[in-house]
Hints:
- The chain is of the alpha+beta class.
- It has 20 helices and 17 strands.
- The chain folds into three domains: 176 residues, Orthogonal Bundle (Arc Repressor Mutant, subunit A), CATH 1.10.10; 174 residues, GAF domain (Beta-Lactamase, 2-Layer Sandwich); 171 residues, GAF domain (Beta-Lactamase, 2-Layer Sandwich), CATH 3.30.450.
- α13 crosses α14.
- The site of P-hydroxybenzoic acid has 11 residues, from α7 and β9.
Amino acid sequence: MPPANPALDTASDAGAPAEAVTPLIRGVAVLHTLTDAGGTLSLSALERTTGLARSTVDRITSTLARMGYVRLDGRDAVLTPRVMELGNAYLSALRLPSLLAGRADVLADELDESVSLAVADRDGIRFIHQATRRRAMSLSFRIGDLLPAERTAPGALFATEWREPEWRAWRARRAADPRDSGFATVPPRQSADAGGDFEERVRAAAGNGWSLDDQLIEPGLVAVSVPVRDPRTGRIACAANVVSHTSRHTAAELRETLLPRLREAVRRMESDLRTPVRATAPAPSGLATWTGASKQELGRGFVESLARGLTVLTAFGEGRAALTLTEVAQATGLARATARRALITYEHLGLVRARDRVFELTPRVMGLGFPPLSRTSLPEIALPHMTELSELVHESTSLSVLSGRDIQYTARVATGRVMSVNITVGTRLPAYAASMGRVMLADLTDAERELDALTPLRPLTRHTVTDLPTLRRVLDEVRAQGYALVDEELEEGLRSIAVPVRDRTGRVVAALNVAMHAARHTVEECVRDILPELRATADRIEGDLRVAGRFTGVTVV
Length: 557
Ligand code: PHB
């Protein structure tokens, strides 16, 4: 029997080269296991699934927590958005998402069907972009998901480049795991030979230059794929796929009606691939130098070789796809010998490929936490940080977005009932009289503000600012000082202070506040004691949002 979880193969260091770093092997196994479990697993389930001792699981998870890659929530370990920096390192080094995602999105809009980009990952395929049309009918895969090549359209295209060793590995996998139990995201095969003759489909794909998936994964799900070739090498860089459902298109219709437009889009993608690599930010340095202090502080609870090893992956990035050992040592600040052992470990685990003295990340790096987080939302990102803030200041905290003239609550951690209105997620309040509303209104251009966001101004209490010129002045002040404090204007006895939450581009996408009974803190205390913690929390949320939003669309609600 094959292990239900491929991480089991790697949790032990059996068969690893002598120089491989055992804690790194185990840490990677824990990340794989959490990923396949959907992002959350109890520590005892981690112990069972990886076969590691409980004390080892504890030390690995506390090291990952210090790195910001997991959160320990009672008995559970939960992957956090920051772990996506590992997948981001691969995707930015690859460059394909930044070069091609825009075209995929345009095609999805044009066809009103889902469009995806996938790369070959050994005898599987791995998604690097998804422009998903939300439909209830079928499964939709996430960026980073791994599928068996023979049950997909792009898999047949990639296999046209396989030689005997790849075919042998594929046959061995099929024999060892006839029902695909090693693939966490596909339904198990109904029968061991479902999917017809893969080799036949590969020959057809080689002849046609396209490939079809006629319900190979599940009934109803159909896809057509075209290879996007690297103009320099002529080899397949990735595959572009149009995905539909038999209730809209049969596989034959996909080929007849949508394939020509997919091919046209792929021609444009191939010309985009001629874009030379841009000179980007200066090479990073000293990425791993923080680990010594954490070791001092946490002692046995911090596995320094794991933290250093994981940092090696983040040395790669845009314009840094192929690095020499010297470059990896420089970027991380690790001794060459240390960096070399980490790279040897990764090569053994299939996360790094070495050729001609340079090292490259493989698509498998995406399996370290990316898929479960690739559809996260801003409220999900914010909530754990808001809980910490609320525990720290002993007051309620909320997140909201601007929706017309209102703010709409999207997340909330309440410490008790401070307001007479019962606020829950979804509650709307007039923006002009709320602290969160004011920080979001303050970020609008004058024209946007004037459109209709500011009228009518009704007095909600005897303190509400209802005079437009005064409100404009207040908003200018809010913009200049970076926060809004609203004192009993929304409700008697309620004081609240809010700061903006900005996305990677600097745009305000939400606001975060702390609300309290006016008797509990003076205005001065609010600014002196609460504002710095509120700002620090918003900074943490923005930091996570930057990592999570680099290659995936994080929804704000
Ligand atoms: C997808 O993007 O969800 C997809 C692509 C190709 C397939 C199946 C699904 O063959």
